[in-house]
Give the backbone structure.
Amino acid sequence: MLAGHRSPSRHVVYSDRHIPSRAASSRLDYSLLERDAATELPAPGRGGGAGSGEGLGQDAGSQAAYAQLLRSQLLGCPPGSPERASAGSSAAGHAASMVPRSPSKSPARKLFRYTTGDVDGLRAPGEPALLSPAGAYGSPQRAERRIPRTPFKVLDAPGLSDDFYLSLLDWSATNVIAVGLASSVYLWSASNSKVTQLVDVGPDDVVTSVAWSSRGNYLAVGTGSGALQIWDAAKNINRIREMGGHTARVTCMSWCSGALASGSRDRGILLRDPRDEAPFHTCLSGHRSEICGLSWAPDTRHLASGGNDNTLCVWDARGAAGATGATGITSPTPASSPRFRTATTPVHRWREHEAAVKALAWSPHSHGVLASGGGSADRTIRIWSATRGSCLQAVDTGSQVCALAWARNANEIVSAHGYSQNQMHVWRCPSMTKVATLTGHSSRVLYLSVSPDGQTVVTGAGDETLRFWNIFPEAKGKTGAMARDIGSHVRASIR
């Protein structure tokens, strides 16, 4: 009968043909498991009865975390990368998607379905897989340090000279800022904002440079007449002595322990010991124009000097020797110092700069590494090796380089610029990658100094203001309380 007739059963034909993709990420392009419709499995050793729901949820979370770790280590997926899940899947469903589906349920879509890969690349075939979670989860990437682009404090400094060749600002180790304003020197305490007038050189003279000693107890003051005064600013505010030797204005000074070097428009560099009766004991003669910058190296042996003759010199102060009396220069007179030595040959003399060299800074991180900056016709920062005697790197800043300072807590440099940008840059060394650009001054940023804790930078410009910037990171194990002591966004006058 027709009712009892059975139609022959249809045989399912399986095809084994597979066209592979030759892309580098082909192993990720085929989804072998259906993630959206996957079912959760109970944890091993747990019953499926009452009370097992909480354990199942914990096991699903553990499975998801373990699967994410495997993807991160084996396939190179960053931790926390989004999965190829459907828009409607929840977090729990996503966690359970890594559990193999129950064999009683057939897949809802084709087994070999082409999908877009969710990683950029795979590990190299020979590279070992590190299954320890310490690499991806134990040491997260450090967040990029944020540098504020604006100053947190501004001080009015009426009378601050707009002269590229002077050095009128310095921050002591005792947290006191000295600034030369016209014929006077003022001290501003960063701890309590107290202002003290240290000296007034008179109506016929002008302050041209200031420099604190290493411990911050003595302050050297250079004048336009060529005189140099030493002041005790730690205990009793009084002048210790006045030292001669220069015949023109004293434009820059640099301390090294108890020794003091001074540079002048008379083209001479004098090495002094304030404890000695003589005003100076050594004269360094190697520049043909005004001395713009001086800086002692951390090894206390080498002295860098920059001049308006576009020349950078490095001197060996211990090896400086010569004939008695002044030879080759007109600055020191035998009458003012009957016994002194003269050195005319520096260890290095570099002429790569095409403008005056004022900005100088020795690296506190690498021995013998010196940074220098050129004027408006040069605009470059150069990194030198005093050990090799060569230039390691040069970068065009696009603006006159007026001052440089190396960070003590990080391998970075801050540079102050004049024409035509009047701004500051922070550079990461040794690559000289620009980290930040800071603006605020309306005139050339001629003067720059760093706080004792190495975090705060104070700058002075021809706009007659001092601005405080929080630039460098704090030292490890210390808290940055100095910037809080200075105050925030309070505008006052230093006079």
